[in-house]
Fold each of these.
Amino acid sequence: MTTEQAAQLLGVKAATVYAYVSRGQLTRHRGGDRRSSRFERAEVERLAARARRGGRAGALDVVLDTELTLLDPAGRLYFRGRDATTLAARPFEQVAELLWTDAGTHSSGPTDEPGAGERGEAVAHEAAWVADEAMLAVAHRVQAALPAGTPPADRFRVTVAALPTSDPFRYDQRPAAVAATGRGLIAAAVDGLPRRSTPVDDGIAARLWAGCADRPPTPTQLRAFDAALVLSADHELAVSALAARVAASARADPYLAVLAGLAALGGGLHGGSVGAAEGMLAELAAGRTVADLVADRLAAGAPVPGFGHAVYTGTDPRAEAVLRLLGPDPGGPLAGRLDELVAAVGRHGGPRPNFDLALGALAVTYGLAPGSAEAVFVLGRCAGLLGHTIEEYRHRFRFRPRAVYVGAAPCPEQ
């Protein structure tokens, strides 16, 4: 089959066919002219059938064209064609704008990371990331009704669920309007958190830090915190992104589309796994040995949180970037135990660290409040969910899956 024929059968664009090739899902053969591509019809049909009926272990392969994120299983991640680990040197707000409008990162300034004051000044020149008084009032009222120990990620979900009541223009689905909604949504979510300290600047990273730590950050700490937010922003068509797109396809307003994504993100096999990694590293910081922790997991037949990935065959670039920013930290709470853990789990070809481990290490190394790792992940991912929402609004309603009934045969009426 030609590339165009394969794309038509799969219901995707030609570029997506080549994405399947890079993932090892299709084999590309050279055409007779040595320039064009050919694909085995049987292999294409098998992939199409798997997408319709479910692949390994009954998992469905949902395939959508997107201009937002490219995930290379070999260990690279790109936001609109730009390396995400390079973008992580920029403020979170700029990268969010890139995902929403393909703007915000085109300046050719120096790549060195600014200090806290410079970062705040840079953010100030962007569009305002503030919530209006009505939104903040709603956020504070709903937060006041929650128990004191409510984790930050749950606080975000409650805030996002309540915010539509304060926005009479929430059904404006033009990209610029949704971007404005996104700025206010994220600002209200982070500013609604009970403050543990005073923000060092007006950036989202500094304001989130103030809700997670009882002291101001150093410039190095704020840099790592901002990078973690950026690298949390999107990861291709994760289940949370698909949930947001399904809601947006039905023309749910942006708040509800994000809320749909946050609901999926809360599952133990998605965003909830970040909390498991943080909890495990907190045990190590409290004195538990690596050998005991790993041995207990092996004895229970359970994986060690924070290792392995369903897509990456190489390293998780997000984990590498954040762990590199954290550095060895010999006098910190983990004091070398993280390297020991990575070596123990990776022995005999074991799995490599993933982003969950990096976020957990960030929270424990910096002594943040419990639940802070998931808070970074959830708040950062709101940017990507809004990007998917904006992109999905371009399409007509297109999600109407059909079920294959396998239950009892219908009984004729007696």
Amino acid sequence: MQRSLRVNANVIYLMGFFHSFVLIVPIFVPLVQAHGLSMTQILQTQALYALTIACFEVPSGYIADIWGRRRAIIIGSGINGCGFLWLVFADGFGDFLVYEVLLGIGVSLISGADLALLYDSQKQLEDSEDAGPSASKALSRLISIEAAASGLAGLGAALLLLLGDMSVLIAAQAISGFIPLLLGFLLIESPRPRLTQSHSANTAAILELLLRGKPVVLWTAFAIAAFGLMAMYAFWIYQKYWEMQGIAVEHFGYIWALFALTVSLGARYASYIESKLGWRCLLILTAILPLVGLLGMAYAGGWVGVMFGFSIQLSRGMSLTLFYDALNRRIPGDFRATVNSLVSLAVRSLFIVTGPLLGWSLDTQGIKVTLLGLAIAFAPILLAVIIGLGVRIRRESQVLPLLKKGAGQQTPAAV
């Protein structure tokens, strides 16, 4: 069984790689604009994508907890592949809406289930004599791999554009999009107690955990939602921003690769930075970096403005590792996929309402006003989140000082 679980982790890493190796992402905005869509329409398709996830996210996470994470991941990967295949024939606004619905259903089935299966598998290995990497390191490794895959997709997109047009990228993505489905059949369901309570009792237990059980869990969820929403906005601004700076589409892939590498490095070394600076300083740094990036992009132009985007990406990498590790350490294995899905739902739900407004602002107010507006809006939000989370972490550490032997620094994940 231990050997199977080690294979499990490696398969999830590979699946994470190919789920993030999406060749069309680095040039998606120009690709869709070539089919006649405005930024408002593009963000409307993303709002539908978020709405689809909002409808399926929590039910799919709960299904993964009840019926098995492996099944949810396999079905979601298959639907994802069908979505990329549909993109081969997409030509108008309605076709892209169908594409986003398919991807939304697929992602909602995978999201939460993959993290939960990886975390459960590594926890099983930690309890064995042949432990392998810890669950927190495995989570950090997965985030780094996914970010690196996104970077390689950027390089792949740039190279394929040299060989042909965007249709070549779409065809290549349709083929690679089914690789996670094939890998999914190699997964092994991690042994864990099966839920025996009624659905209503399980729902009550989850709400009790989030709202009253552990305050750090709720505030960590707030942090993931706030930082995740800001990163999502930046994601859809980048390509339009590069276009406005006169950067050729052929260079988008290279920039995207460097941006993704920055996320990967931030995720990989978040724990190291935390050990050197302390968790309080890391929280502050994670909140300051994206605000600096937004302001720098607003006031600087050309390649200098592009460079400021790296600070947003660095914060993204650090926050993913910091907050998701802190969250998963405090969630019982029975409900891990459900709670991860709930957190993702919070981000998507906020984007449903605000995404089209972002597109409208980019079309009518311009890139600078939009960037400044985001910086002004998020400054108090991030301040409130890091203060609230910091207070709850300090209180928890005073009540339950569960520092591991040999750990010299209190951290949100270790406390």
